[in-house]
Structures are given as structure tokens and as C-alpha cells.
Amino acid sequence: MARHHRPRAPRVTPHTMAIAAARARRLSDADVKQQRAIVETALGEFSRGIRCAFHWNSLADVANVAQTLAGMGLGSGREADAVTGAAQGALQAVHQRQAAGGSWTLYATELDALTWLVRLHTTVQLPACSYGEFDEAFRATHRRLRQTLAGNASPGAVLVAGDLAGDLGGRLDQRGAL
């Protein structure tokens, strides 16, 4: 009895070396420049009272990704921790004032903290970052925010959740810590 021959579907195998090489490649100067322009615009407009809620979310995301990158060893150390902590504190303070019926006005120390955050992220972390590291930091930050907002964090700590938190973003949460 003869068997009917069924050809197999061709097996698609990704070129793992090409994928690994692409992920290991440092962020291009053009990508770093574009990201720097976006973040500097957010800080500039936020400090002038333009589209504050939108820019607060962006700066919260920058602070959270910067914290993750520092945890991965990119732009890390006590000073980097102090910069990200001060920026998150500034974002927390301005959010609380605005939520209490006030304005989005930044005090000088808050503006200074956010300026240092932007400098750390755009001139130290991003130029040293690979595409794979950036992707991992982005994903890890998203997971951490979602877990924190779900209540899986230390009590009493503060979280600033921007757009990376998904539909739960744009808020301040007193339960979670980043």
C-alpha cells in the first residue's frame, strides 16, 4: 500500500544571529537625538504651563524608565538614584497640588530635579543603551507599574504612573513604590 506524500510546510527559522546583533547595537545617534528632543520639549512646555497633564505623563515615564535603566547598570549609582528619586518626588508634589485644585506650577527645586532627570536620561543613559536594553527596560517598567498599581508593592511608598502604566496611567498612587 503506497502512502500519499504530503509535503511539509516550510519551516521558518529566524536568523537568530541577526536578531541578536540588532538587539546588541547601540541606539543610533538619530534615535537618541529624537528622544532628547521629545523629552526636552515635554519639560520645556510643562515648565511653561502648556499641555501639563500630557507632559506630566511623559516625564513620569521618563523617570520610571530611567530608574529601570539605572537598575540595569546604565547611568546608575547613588547620584542617579538621587536624580530619579528627586524627579519622582517633584512629579508627585506637582500632581498633588494640581489634584487639590491648584495649578501645574513647578517650584524652582522641582524644575531643577526634572532638568537633572532629563540630562541623566538623554545624555548618559540613552547614548549608552542598546536597542535590546531599551526594549527590556521599557517592558520591565511597564510590568513593574502594572504590578505596583495592582497593589503588589510596599505600603506607604509613592508611585508616579505615566502612560506606560496603560489605562491606569496618569495618576499618583500612594500604595506603590518603584
Radius of gyration: 20 Å
List segments where confidence is low: pLDDT < 50 over at least 5 consecutive residues.
Answer: 172-178
Overall structural class, as computed from helix and strand content, comes to mainly alpha
Task: Give the helix proportion (percent range).
Answer: 55-70%
Describe this structure in words.
- The protein has helices at 16-24, 29-47, 52-71, 78-99, 108-128, 131-149, and strands at 159-161, 171-173.
- The chain is built from 6 helices and 2 strands, in the order H-H-H-H-H-H-E-E.
- The termini are far apart.
- It is elongated and about 85 Å long.
- Helix 2 (29-47) crosses helix 3, helix 3 runs antiparallel to helix 4 (78-99) and helix 3 crosses helix 5 (108-128).
- The model is unreliable at 172-178 (pLDDT under 50).
- By secondary structure, the chain is mostly helical.
- A two-stranded antiparallel ribbon has the order 1-2.
